[in-house]
Amino acid sequence: MLLSLALLVALAPDASPPEAPASVDDRGHVFVEAPLALSAQGTASRVETVLTPWAGLRAGWLSHDDGGVFFGGDGAILAGLEGGGTAQVALSKLPLLLEGRGLVGMRHRVGLFAVGGYGYGGVGVGGGPLLVSAFDDSRARVFGTWATRVGAGGELAFGGARLRIELGTGLRDARFELHGAVAAGAAF
Amino acid sequence: MVLKRLLPLVTVAGLGACAPIPGPVVVEAVVPVPGDAGGVGIGDVTLERVLDLRTGRGRDFDVRGDFKVNATDFQDLTGSFDEVVERIRRGGGSDVEPHMSFDGTRYLADDWETLYYFTLTANFEAAFAFAREAGDVSRASSDDDNERALVGLFASIVLSDFVPLPLISSDNAAYAAPVDGWLALRTAFQEGVPFGMHRGVIAHEFGHRLFFHNAFSSVDGGFEVWQADNSAPAEDAAAIRAQMLLKGIDEGLADVFAIASLSDKDAINAAFAGAGELFAEEAVRRDVEGPFADAATYDNLRTLSLDASQLQSCGLTSTEFGASFNFYCVGTVVAATLWEGAGNDATVMRTEIEPAVIAALPKVGEALVNGVAFDLDLFLEPLAQTVPPGARREALCAAIARRFDSLVVAGRIPTCS
Hints:
The complex is a heterodimer of chains A (about 190) and B (about 425).
Chain A: H1 2-11, E1 29-42, E2 49-62, E3 68-80, E4 82-85, E5 89-93, E6 96-110, E7 113-134, E8 137-158, E9 161-172, E10 175-187
Antiparallel strand pairs in A: 1-2, 1-10, 2-3, 3-6, 4-5, 5-7, 6-7, 7-8, 8-9, 9-10
Chain B: H1 2-6, E1 10-11, H2 12-15, E2 25-32, E3 40-47, E4 50-52, E5 57-58, E6 61-65, E7 68-70, H3 81-89, E8 94-95, E9 100-102, E10 107-109, H4 112-133, E11 149-153, E12 156-158, E13 166-168, E14 173-176, E15 181-184, H5 199-217, H6 222-231, H7 237-262, H8 269-273, H9 280-285, H10 291-295, H11 298-302, H12 308-313, H13 328-341, H14 346-369, H15 377-386, H16 391-403, H17 405-409
Parallel strand pairs in B: 6-11, 7-12, 11-15
Antiparallel strand pairs in B: 1-9, 2-3, 4-5, 6-8, 9-10, 12-13, 14-15
Helix pairs in contact in B: 4-5, 5-7, 5-14, 7-13, 7-14, 13-16, 14-15
């Protein structure tokens, strides 16, 4: 649903003449996107890998939307889902992460189309609920979490609509982590 | 108020702290519910004997990560026991990396594997403690640094280095004498309490170490007998029969240890009963008061005179105790005999029967060293001798006579004849 909304918003600027983005170059532009991410992290046994799916909303500002070097920053709220066990004995948790990042990259634009690449680095803090259950017995609590992330991404834009793909690494709760994301959104 | 409550919740890994966390230390784990046979809940348990909760090191055993056993390594069991263990352990994996928080009084698991690790550690500590209480002085419950056991967390058995195809990797826990340790496998298809987190299952697996060390490694020449028995497949029918019965008593006494350790007759069958349809048949077979235990005897298995469907489930269709025999069947016969000998009383099982089992096991090894082919009398006679004369011995002998009639009649268990 978020993706549909983002695409609807993204299509809106298409009605404007192609030169419209240049008019906002001086003050940069903002963007909103809906990332879907997957992170992979080692576990206590050093055998398994926990894959955590994340979904969220990200908004940011970039120095301009034209060709050439750009820079900016963004912030996101991401919600993940982790857990394991059986239907009767399990641990499940819902990490919520507030993430702030800096970005720098380069973009090539031809008319309405643009293609670019960028690097990013950021930190996140958050927490969430955790539930341990064994049959009829359960205990709930909240936990804290933090993360640092660096990575690289690529973007494809058509007018104000954009699709981004990212791959990165970092630490979450002092554990090495790989993460990848795909995000669809719109720039204004 | 909320903040005050949250502040003590320190994510230990998050702080990057690296000082050891020795026992006694309280953790939140999946624990048996007192008074609710087979029931489990979430509770606090004190780990007394860990040396460092952060790495899995302990006085009695180390919990290790990234641990694989190569099946092809089992083909070479030459050398002393210590040499075999060192070779097949291949360095013994690596430290575990629990993901946990500290709330000011106890450690809390922040992920599933850490909850598994805490629970498994608590269950092994309970098994070690009970073995000592029951009089074990063998390597099985030793805390000597050079004899420390190993528990592979989410370990697996792979075919070989070159073909690391997992042969066994989920829904089980096992003791492997060649590594003198246990493999606690991940959960995949089972329901209920994962076997590696089940106190009864872990006690059962501990029972295998108790059997191995008391019957073999503690006896002069015993390990060599074990080596010969496990280095090459038995060829003639008599040798296969002896091997099957030896495996059967190993399984049966492991069940006895679990029942005694938990003071719960359902210590094992409840684990299977809760694990889903896949394990339903095993749940019935392992119930010491169930229909199988009630009907099966050493003699009606041996002579194929038990109900046909039960014989079939035991792999007994034409040959007695052949290579296809499901040796767990005779294991249940042994466990049910001792349960009945204890007067169906878990406390007697704990305080009288299990200590007698431990005292009798070296006699099994001694007989095997003397070249006697294994049959159940090699255990039942010293067991009966170990139980003091009186009502308890009479009850045990009556139970033995009911299920091992041919051995008693033949005078092979003279204490009960």
